Prior knowledge:
The protein is an alpha+beta fold. The chain is 30% helix and 25% strand. Strands 1, 2, 8, 9, 10, 11, 17 and 18 form an eight-stranded mixed β-sheet that branches. A six-stranded antiparallel β-sheet has the order 13-14-15-12-16-19, with helices on both faces. α1 (16-27) packs parallel to α4, α1 (16-27) packs parallel to α7 and α7 runs antiparallel to α8. The longest helix has 25 residues, at 320-344. The chain is globular, with a radius of gyration of 23 Å. It starts with 6 loop residues before the first strand and ends in a 17-residue tail after the last strand. The model has no long low-confidence stretch (mean pLDDT 87).
Amino acid sequence: MGGREVVDVAVVGAGPTGLLLAGDLARAGARVALLEKRTEESNLTRAFAVHARTLEHLDARGLADALVATGNAVDGLRLFGSVSVSFATLPSRFPFLLVTPQYHVERLLLARAVDAGVDLRRGARVVSLAQDEDGVRLDLESTRSPVRARYVVGTDGHHSTVRSQLGLDFPGRSVVRSLMLADVRMTQPPGELLTVVGNREGFCFVVPYGDGWYRLIARDPRREPSEDVPVSLDELRDLTRRVLGTDLGMHSPRWMSRFHSDERQVTSYRVGRVLLAGDAAHVHSPAGGMGMNTGLQDAANLGWKLAAVLDGRAEESLLDTYEAERKPIGASAVRTSGALIRVAMLRSRLARGARDLAFRRALGLAPVGARAALRISGIGLRYPAPPGQHDLVGSRAPDLTDRDGRRLHQSLDPAGFTLVAPGPVLARYASAAGLSTFAPAAPTPPVPGTAAMLVRPDGHVAWAGPAGQPLDDALRPRGAGS
């Protein structure tokens, strides 16, 4: 690569995914340039749902409590009709779905990133990139100087320039045309916390932010103009009257938009020194509220790996585990949200009745309902483990507490593994390994059948086993499935 290398990582796109990743890298000591084509801070509210696993990642970064204070904690998600999934029994500090505008998430992550030393460059629109064995050159629009970086991560959304410049396919299809979004006030809001109604007239989903504003997601199958046609308040009122029997007294919209919802996933998450995350790698319907969450969890997975490679603690092959672990998760989100949106928009009364009966019976079974909650919330998602490894490897580590009241999720080492074990076992391992350690308050093993477990910076278990088992192999920074 010609010229002087300026930064370790250039992150393209300052949405939630890019902000979390940039902040993590900067806190690990990397020189990070965050390139954002927008010239001003966003007030975007397209995403509104923050699930439990994402809140745990934010908790590890000291941000969860501040974010929870901005919104409504909902203990269940109504999928359609009378069918719902409860989060109340999730094994997490956050047994709920948090409803809050996306800009609250962005503002917290932006402040953290800037405080960590991220070089945020607004109005920096990437137009092309070229890479060689030493790094990547990013050319910017207008007279701005090119940016040179050892690695580039594209977090620049559905219409990603980075993905386009890599020549990667983004296969998939449109799921819903002309879906309308709006944030409005209401004089007669619905009585339920979450209201979802679909019938032959259309589809409406109403969610309260808790501060007097309501998010409306709506579809009118009789009228599906292109997404560049503005949404009018009269159009929304007419549709809600037909679907809900009332327009809810909606007024004073602060934001209205129309878009089509796609199901797509990029063919590769990494090409050489360039990687993709968030909507640049996968997009799907808003059903289940998994979009922003999946992107933030991409960033949590990639950040520690890229930091380890940059400072020489790991071989570059560690970056291959990012795609190996996150691509199946992205595919699962696409499938799950697609299934939910399709069954939610059934127009036939007979089909809707059969749907509701089948789902009520299935989710009424405790194991099925619990699995649905674990999957949608992200708590139950895990990464593949090598054959012969303990069942815990690849799973999310439980949020244990030590004798001083500290929690494991807030005590993880952002730059390395944390050894979790009772005190006597820690003394046996830690002095030789130089590990961060955590001793649970209970004298018993952290998880029955184990004496110790190694937890990665992103909260997933890298190794678990009995006392006396060597840790040398497990301590090499790598993904659970490598």
